[in-house]
Write a structure and sequence with these properties.
This protein is mainly β. The protein has one domain. The protein contains one helix and six strands; from the N terminus they run ββββββα. The strands form two sheets. A four-stranded antiparallel sheet has the order 1-2-3-4. Strands 5-6 form a two-stranded antiparallel ribbon. The longest helix is centred in the C-terminal third of the chain and has 16 residues.
Length: 117
């Protein structure tokens, strides 16, 4: 699957002993701008991608989670889920998806002056 939004998907499986429901950690480049970290979890409905969140108690005292970032629509989150889980299942942990360059291979001539903000 080729994506215009997500690139450089890296998935690193974890050893199963003592990992609980955690199956892998990884990162993905979003819109060639920001790197997002994630975890692959094994839930009651199968594998899913979990993004960083902060645990808190809501007004009723129930445990809730506030995600650190959101995707603007369900289609993007579904695309990320598919990319990550396919890569996890195919055993290509630690490898980039597609023909994107790996992190650390950026153009060495880039300078801080080229940052648009």
């Amino acid at each position: 699957m080729s994506s215009k939004v997500f690139s450089d998907v890296k998935v690193y499986p974890v050893k199963s002993s003592g990992a609980g429901k955690l199956r892998a950690n990884g990162s993905v480049m979003v819109a060639n701008t920001v790197i997002v970290k994630f975890s692959v979890m094994d839930g009651k409905n199968g594998l899913f991608v979990s993004v960083p969140s902060q645990q808190y108690k809501d007004k009723t005292g129930k445990t809730a989670y506030n995600r650190h970032y959101y995707f603007p629509n369900k289609e993007l989150m579904d695309e990320l889920q598919t990319l990550v889980i396919d890569q996890y299942k195919n055993g290509s942990g630690g490898k980039s998806s597609g023909n994107q360059k790996n992190l650390g291979e950026e153009n060495q001539d880039d300078s801080v002056d080229n940052i648009p903000f």
